[in-house]
Amino acid sequence: MKFLMPHSVPSSSSLVSIIFIAVLTLASISIANKFPYIMQHDRSHVAKALAPKYPEVGLPSPKGPTILDPNLKAELVFRGLRYPTSMAFLGPNDIVVTEKDAGTVRRVVNGTELQHALLNVSVATYAHRGMLGIAVAPLTTATSSTNHGNRNTTTYVFLYYTQAQTHTGDDVTEGKQPLGNRLYRYELINNNKLVNPKMLLDLPATPGAIGDGGKVIVGPDNNVYVTIGDVGINGHSTKAQNIQNGSEPDGTSGILRVNQDGQPVVPGILGNKYPLDLYYSYGMWNSFGLAFDPVTRILWDTENGLIFGDEINLVDPGFNSGYNKIDGIWLRGYNIDQAEKHVAPLHPNDLVDFGGKGKYHPPQFTWFRSVAPTGIIFLNSNKMGNLYENDMFVADAINGNIYHFKLNLQRTGLLLPSGPLADGVANSSDPLNQIIFGKGFGGITDLKVSPYDGYLYVLTFDETQGTLYRVVPVNK
Predict the structure, then answer these.
(1) Which of 246, 351, 446, 452 is deepest in the core (most CB within 10 A)?
(2) What is the spatial distance between Cα 143 and Cα 234, in angstroms, rounded to a whole number?
(3) What is the pLDDT of residues 242-270, one digit of tens each?
(4) Helix, strand, coil shares, percent, the chain, to 5
(5) Tell me, what's the pLDDT at 151?
(6) Residue 98's beta-bridge partner residues?
(7) Which of 47-61, 105-119, 390-404 comes out lowest in average pLDDT?
(8) pLDDT of 372 strictly over 50
């Protein structure tokens, strides 16, 4: 993940090129003073991680998290997870969590972590690689073409992870390249084990170790949606990265969609040739957040810019987010101290549109200075009061903030406060306090609303003290 970038110590033989990277991404030498940590480009190196592994992730407040609405509080559910990345719900007070560098799926029931993991697989762990995403298909929506379209009584759990060749971390300890970024479907049996893995997608995990995406959700159409980034700094040069003379898309830089058996949904949005037929949207550097609006059933995402230009987007089918020509509303190709002056036109003429099937629009909200947006969710309940019902919440990994947004009547844009953020652009000098709902969490990797109790849940990132919170009324 953009913010999951460990320190490494390269050997003298592997000092081929060292570059400085942004909080969520690697970048050019020109931003070295702003982002003082490094990544080795030599793919044959053996990296040795130093503690802390992920210093760019925000630290929690010593006083604990604060919800700015005095009627609400952040309630501790569980603390003790190891670099958790995503969560999903199996039942009331029953949460499954992925642990990035352990390759495990942990289960927290009634505030207690079960002794045995539901699953432990071998994952590559360098930089953004690892166990990254999880989604659960409710029994009422789990259908299978192999079951002749009948309802399936098996609980499907979808996992996205960077699969290692031999054992967890072998890309770090032995320099082995991962097998791929893979989406699997597992079955939950006996309510305590994930079995019968079926690989649904086998996506690139090289040449770089960043920009792997990994968020997974099951949409209201029962299809599975997953994010994947560019997998490296300019790691792939295809039409999906808006390279007009590039090769055909290869499954990177987009939101991909398959049914629960891993088949493309037909007809394809951009075309019907594999893997172009997988793309729901394209032109993204990386993304750690997906959510469908429960009112309109339209998809939204959060995206991380390469150095600058983090985004919140409404994602219609065929949406082109503009990478690698545009991050946020700003043109790429300028030094960081000049980039903010170069705003992209509303209708760029140098983007790939796949014969008019792809459509670009600027983000609904963007930050110039990186905040590393991660989880995005709509509060489809009134458990936090009618004031927040169906509103959007977005988390970040750098500041440990949760942002709150109301939507316009058509629910196609955000109702923003008057002042510097009214145009949907947080320039480098703009304060963010008008949109902050909660703060002091430390790096947040996921937000979810429980379908069982209707509360907002928050997942934070730490080596051994990753934490689950629930936002509830103070009088609960």
Answers:
(1) 446
(2) 38
(3) 999 999 999 999 999 999 999 999 999 99
(4) 5, 40, 55
(5) 55
(6) 86, 105
(7) 47-61
(8) yes
b/e string for 329-341 if b means 16 or more Cβ within 10 A? bbbbeeebeebbe
Write the CB contacts of 245 (distance below 8 Å, at least 6 apart in sequence): none
Longest distance between any two alpha carbons in the chain, whole Å: 61
pLDDT, the chain, mean: 88
Tell me 171's DSSP state.
H
Q: Which amino acid is at 306?
A: L
**In this structure, how many other beta carbons lie within 10 angstroms of the beta carbon of residue 49?**
17
Which residue intervals of 325-440 are DSSP H helices?
336-339
**Which stretches of 21-145 are assigned E, i.e. beta strand?**
38-40, 66-67, 72-81, 84-91, 94-99, 104-109, 112-113, 119-120, 131-137
Separation between Cα atoms, residue 373 and residue 396, nearest integer Å: 4
C-alpha to C-alpha distance for 418 and 71, rounded to whole angstroms:
24
Note the Cα 276 to chain centre separation in Å: 21
**Is the distance from CB of 234 to CB of 258 less than 8 angstroms?**
no
Q: What are phi and psi of 151, to 5 degrees?
A: -65, 140
Q: CA–CA separation, 324 vs 137, rounded Å?
A: 33
Taking only the tens place, the pLDDT of each residue in 262-295 is 999 999 999 999 999 999 999 999 999 999 999 9
Q: Identify which of 42, 26, 18, 36 has the alpha carbon closest to the alpha carbon of residue 171.
A: 42
**pLDDT tens, position by position, 88-97:** 999 999 999 9
Residue identified by tokens 């599975």 is 224
Q: Is 277 helix (H, G, I), strand (E, B) or coil?
A: helix
**Residues 6+ positions from 432 with CB-CB distance below 8 Å:** 371, 399, 401, 403, 421, 426
Q: Is 434's pLDDT higher than 80?
A: yes
Q: What is the pLDDT of residue 48?
A: 27
- Phi/psi at 44 (5° precision): -100, 5
Of the candidates 268, 254, 266, 359, the residue with the CA atom closest to the CA atom of residue 301 = 254
